[in-house]
């Protein structure tokens, strides 16, 4: 009667994890980021880390960093789209701070959101007061018979 716990020299022992899955097998799942799960470009994990480290609250829910990343990504995309349009209007292929300033200040909602924000090298909005504009010559409505 041969009973041996060692199967022999040509047999590789495989450690088993629960439910018969081998540890380190080829079927191991590759980790996917929370950003890719949510379909976002902004880093959900980094935002979660900042929320926890910032002491904004004692606990941070699982959905909070995903939601915040989505909001930040939307705002960035909105500003970049408008700034790209401003750059194209100025016949430029590169977005500079001036284009971001023009984009933000020409959009009512973004201007309200970023009302107290100063954009470095953004310049000012072009504006000429109505009193400084030249008078139009043919727009006088004087009656024809009142000339002295």
CATH architect. name of the domain at 33-124 = Orthogonal Bundle
Give the low-confidence spans.
Answer: none
Largest sheet: 2 strands, antiparallel
How far apart the termini lie comes to 138 Å
Instruction: Please state the CA-atom Rg, rounded to the nearest Å.
Output: 33 Å
Arithmetic mean of pLDDT: 87
Which series of helices and strands comes N to C? Answer: EEHHHHH
Shape annotation: elongated
Which percent bin holds the helix content? Answer: 25-40%
Structural class: mainly alpha
CATH top level of the domain at 33-124 is Mainly Alpha
Fourth-level CATH superfamily of the domain at 33-124: Histone, subunit A
Oligomeric state as shown:
single chain
Number of helices: 5
**Strand ordering within the main sheet:** 1-2
The beta-strand count equals: 2
In the CATH hierarchy, the third-tier topology of the domain at 33-124 is known as Histone, subunit A
Strand percentage, roughly? under 5%
Task: Produce the secondary structure layout.
Blueprint (H helix, E strand, L loop, with lengths): L15 E2 L3 E2 L11 H5 L5 H10 L10 H26 L7 H10 L1 H6 L35
Antiparallel strand pairs: 1-2
Helix pairs in contact: 2-3, 3-4
């Amino acid at each position: 009667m041969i009973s041996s716990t060692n199967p022999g020299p040509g047999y590789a022992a495989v450690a088993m994890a629960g439910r018969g899955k081998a540890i380190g097998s080829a079927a191991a799942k590759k980790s996917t980021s929370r950003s890719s799960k949510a379909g976002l470009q902004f880093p959900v994990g980094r935002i979660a880390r900042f929320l926890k480290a910032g002491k904004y609250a004692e606990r941070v829910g699982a959905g909070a960093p995903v939601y915040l990343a989505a909001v930040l990504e939307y705002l960035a995309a909105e500003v970049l789209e408008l700034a790209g349009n401003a750059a194209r209007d100025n016949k430029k292929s590169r977005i500079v701070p001036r284009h971001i300033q023009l984009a933000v200040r020409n959009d009512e909602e973004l201007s309200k959101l970023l009302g107290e924000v100063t954009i470095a090298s953004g310049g000012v909005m072009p504006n000429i007061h109505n009193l400084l504009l030249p008078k139009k010559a043919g727009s006088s409505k004087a009656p024809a018979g009142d000339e002295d």
